[in-house]
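REQUEST
  id: r-88c1
  op: predict_structure
  target: 2-keto-4-pentenoate hydratase
  payload:
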Amino acid sequence: MRYVRFGPPRAERPGALDGEGRLHDLSAALADIDPETIAAGLPRLDDDTLAARFPRVEGTPRLGSPVARPGKIVCVGLNYRAHIAEVGASPPREPVLFLKAPTALAGPADPVVLPSWSLSLDWEVELAMVVGTRIGAGWSGSVSDAVAGFAIANDLSDRSMQLDRGGQWTKGKSADGFCPLGPWLVTPDAVADPQTLGLTTRVNGVTRQEGSTADLVFGLDAILAYIGSVMTLLPGDLVLTGTPAGCAMGMAEPAYLKAGDVMELAIDGLGRQRTLVEAAR
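RESPONSE
  id: r-88c1
  status: 200
  body:
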C-alpha cells in the first residue's frame, strides 16, 4: 500500500492511494499516521474496501511528510561505496550514526527555505525506513518484518555548518525543512527488493546522483540491528540509510544550492519529490 498525509501544514489527514493512484481519505479509520497508529498496525485495504468505505479526495492537495511526529530520525553516514570514494574517505568498520531533528521534516514538495546562515546547502537522496516495531539489543529479524514501510528522504546538509563550524553533522542537517520526506509511505509487500532500488537526484534538470541500494556498505538488516544495539528504535522512528555518489561536496568545484534551484528526487517504486529552494525570509 501507499499511505500519505495530505492537507495544510500541521493539519494533515491520513490517506491512501488505490491501484489507479486515486487518493482516499482514511480519517474514518485513522487519527493520523504517527508512532501510535504505526505501533498498532496500519490497516491493509484493497481497492474495493477503499472505494466502499473511504471517500475519494479530488484535486491535488498538498502532501505532507507521510509520517507525523517521529520520536527520532537516525541517519547513517558514509554508507555507499561510490560516495565514500568521491569524498576521499575510507569505508567505515562500523556504521556511522548521527541524528537529525524531527522538526526538520517537511512535505515532498514544500519549498526549502535557505537559513540566513547557510553557505553551502547540499542534496542527499536517501532510502528512509519507517520503523514498525521495537528494535533493541539482540534484535536479529528481517527488515520486511521490522519496518512499516519505505520512503524517499532528502538529507539536506549545510556543509559549512556540518564540517567547518565545529564539525557537527547534526547541526548542519537539522534546520527546519532539511528533511523532505515522501511522497508516500510504501509498505514492504509493495517493494520487490529494497536492496536493489535505483536512486536519482536531478538539480535544475541535470542528473547529479544516480545509484542503487545494492552499493550499500551496510545492508538494511545490519543497519537496524546495529542501531538497536546502541539505542532502542520505536515504531514511527525514521532511519535514513545513506546517500550515493553525486553530492555537490564531491565536485571539483561544488555547485551548492541557491535560491531558485529545483531538486527532483526519485527512488524506484517510492515516487518522486520536487522541491524549490527559496531565499532566506
